[in-house]
Amino acid sequence: MTMLELRNLSLSRAGVPVLGGIDLRLGAGEFVGLLGPNGAGKTTLLRAALGLLPAQGHSSLAALSARERARAAAYMPQGREIAWPMPVEALVALGRIAHPHSAGAADRAAIERAMTALHLAPLRHRRATELSGGEQARTLIARALAQETPLLIADEPIAGLDPAAQIEVMRLFGQIAGQGRTVLASLHDLGLAARHCTRLVMLHRGRIAADGPPEQVLTAENLARVFGITAHLAQGPDGLLFQPLGTIGHDESL
């Protein structure tokens, strides 16, 4: 089952191409890591796929109405600052707005599942504005999880989290995919992406440079061409192990 389809998706700003001819199809049960250096177009791609930015081409999500889209995909943007002095539980409950009768037993159960998954139950009555940056990030992830959509799109969801929380969130996303849903997350930590994602999509200058299983995407050639780095790659018991070693100049001939 296709959860997201992009065909020839392109976007320009002030006449400068930002995305060029993106073709991408995500199926049920995939945990897809969207990789690329700063400025590669990751956030632009996620927002254009959701219909939040005007783009040329086709996005199966952008073609939906706002309510249909909210039931099809949950979105966690890159921004982490919470401006509303409301209790954590109430903020997580905002993820249920798209569902009719969002005050029933099913909604309360979804909210509780999301808070439990992110270890927020002890903070349920705390004002979200009083939380640490990492706690706010977990609260926003929980809000997206409470939406319980077939597709979860997250823009740098583990940024600002401590290492243990990063691993827990990546494992949680893997579990969600294992239940038949789909996760698309932009990530900067290539090591965690290599170990936890079932598929990686690497962007370079607004175009897809590589797409496939981690071991096929995180090759020496792709890492040199796109990121300008060398790295050690090895197959471990829990997946691909990745360790950056050094930087190199971007050689356009690669």
Automatic annotation (TrEMBL):
It comes from the Bacteria. Gene3D superfamilies: P-loop containing nucleotide triphosphate hydrolases (3.40.50.300). Pfam families: ABC_tran. The keyword tRNA-binding does not apply. One of its GO terms (molecular function) is ATP binding. Coiled coil: none annotated. Transmembrane segments: none annotated. Residues 4-230 form the ABC transporter domain. Keywords: ATP-binding, Nucleotide-binding. InterPro entries: AAA+_ATPase, ABC_transporter-like_ATP-bd, P-loop_NTPase. This is ABC transporter ATP-binding protein.
